[in-house]
Specification:
The protein is about 60% helix and about 10% strand. By secondary structure, the protein is mainly alpha-helical. It has a three-stranded antiparallel beta sheet with strand order 1-3-2.
Length: about 100
């Protein structure tokens, strides 16, 4: 299981550490304390980010999401923007049709 610190999560999702700490405090994020430090399961962070439109948008523009197009993530659960997956599939299908026509 991948667990991130508060600062790692903030950098990854393109938000302030205060935002992560606020979500820990209100129970939006699950966490464990290891050696006196919060460690947040990556799965919990993904679920949290998908439910919050502002965080989702920041993830795409300021966080790791700005690099996702290069990685070509096909799993909707782990994609910051599931809509791009369907667009990619449609583009692939169009490309296959063009190849068949040639």
């Amino acid at each position: 299981m991948i667990r991130l610190s508060v600062s790692e999560a903030a950098k990854f999702f393109g938000v302030e550490q205060k935002t992560i700490r606020r979500s820990l405090k209100d129970g939006s994020l699950r966490y464990v304390v290891i050696r006196g430090r919060y460690r947040i399961p990556f799965e919990s962070l993904l679920e949290w980010s998908q439910k919050r439109p502002k965080v989702k948008n920041k993830l795409s523009t300021q966080g790791v999401g700005q690099y996702v197009d290069r990685w070509k993530i096909k799993n909707k659960l782990f994609s910051p923007n599931p809509a791009t997956i369907t667009q990619t599939k449609e583009n692939q299908e169009e490309g296959q049709e063009r190849r068949r026509e040639q």
